[in-house]
Each structure stands twice: as structure tokens, then as C-alpha cells.
Amino acid sequence: LQIFEKHFKLRNYLVGYQLTLADVYLVTTLLSPFQLFVDKKTREQTFPNLNRFMILNLQNFHFSKGFGKIQFCNK
Prior knowledge:
The chain is mainly α. It has helices at 2-7, 21-36, 40-45, 48-58, 61-67.
């Protein structure tokens, strides 16, 4: 996760300047860990850029239509 954290420090997407299949794959892969065990404190302090990436993409119309309202782990 640290590799992605560093990558998203200056970028919003994995490749280029728009959503790609790589971004979709990463979001869907990280969705379960973010929902089940990566708590709010860890997301905000250790992975703020990755957290921003996840929130940005999950607010995308296509993600929200497919997944509905997503709740991340709090504790």
C-alpha cells in the first residue's frame, strides 16, 4: 500500500489523467479491506493519498451506480 500511497501523492489515477481499467481494478481490490479492517485513523494518517483516491473514484457515477453507498471501517 505504501507504493500506491507514494504514487497518489501527485496523481489522481494510476495511468494518465482519467479513469482506466487499472484504477477500477485497484478500487475493487481495496474495497473489501477498506470496509473490513483499515480503520479511519489508519486511512487518514498512514494512507491519506490512497484514501483520497478511493473516495474520488467511489464518488464516480459508474462506481456509485454499481456499488451503491459504501461504508468504510471506522474502528
